[in-house]
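[job 4471] stage=fold_predict status=RUNNING
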Amino acid sequence: MELALVGGLRELGAGGAPDAETRKRIRDEIAGRLAEAEAPSKRRGHTIANLSAAAVALFLALGGITLLLSRDALPGDPLYGIKRAGESAALGLTFDEQDKAKKHLEFATNRVGELDELTRQGASTGAYFTGLADFETDLRAGVTQLTAVVTDQGGQSRLAELSSWARQQSDRLGLQVGNAPAEARDKFAAARVLLDKVQARTTDLGSRLVCYTITTGTSDDLGALPAAGDCVRDPGSPNAVVPPVISPAPSSAPTGSPSPTSVPPTSNVDTATPTGPLAPPTGGTPPPVVATPTQTKTPPPPTTTTPPPPLISIPPLIPGLPPIIIG
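[job 4471] inference complete, writing structure tokens
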């Protein structure tokens, strides 16, 4: 009885197994459900990438707008730091030393203009301190880099332009100091003293550009220090002045006549050319008469004739032939 029951169960289990088609259908259904489960995660990844790109674009747009708005910022304003950061970025993108020096001097000029605006607005003392400190920073950096270029490559005109620029900025600061707070006037005076040092430095360096030794090899806050002492001129310097070539005056002396090597001494005797006829001597011994030698014609050299060379006769080498004659 039990054996019959076990055998029936085995037959029932074998008969309920799915066939090949059923197994394929079940496998396809499971694979489809897995694909549907993965699709939302991929869409979620694309969404995150799009949001990140949009955030970066928004940040750049806001940064550009902020930088644009900071162009008119003054020392003490909230956007003034962003303005200075933009200037530093512009310097980082400039690779030529002379162009960097020009940008520093341009920024220093902007600081003087901002100080002028501060005097109109009656700004705080701290704003003046910030503007003057940034002015001196750009001034020192620009002068240091420009003088390094000039001492290496030459350029008297660049030093002249720098001296003129320093004089103009000093005059502008002199007009502003009367309207500035009393606490900031010492800072104005220090800035003008620094500009006077720049003018003196350009003058000293300009006078040494034609020398072999231009600088001492040391530097200070304004760059290279000019050398002192005697100037040994460097003819190969691009700033050296070539002396003009003076051509000798034309001489009326005939060709081949020796030129005088010394000037005869002057005497008290009047050697002026007489304007009238010479009077005959009134007395004394008349000068002796010297006979003029007659020119003798040199006879031409005798003509010589060279006799012709003698003839050379060689006896015939073979009997019956004529002799060989050379000559």
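[job 4471] summary: The longest helix spans residues 20-69.
[job 4471] exit 0
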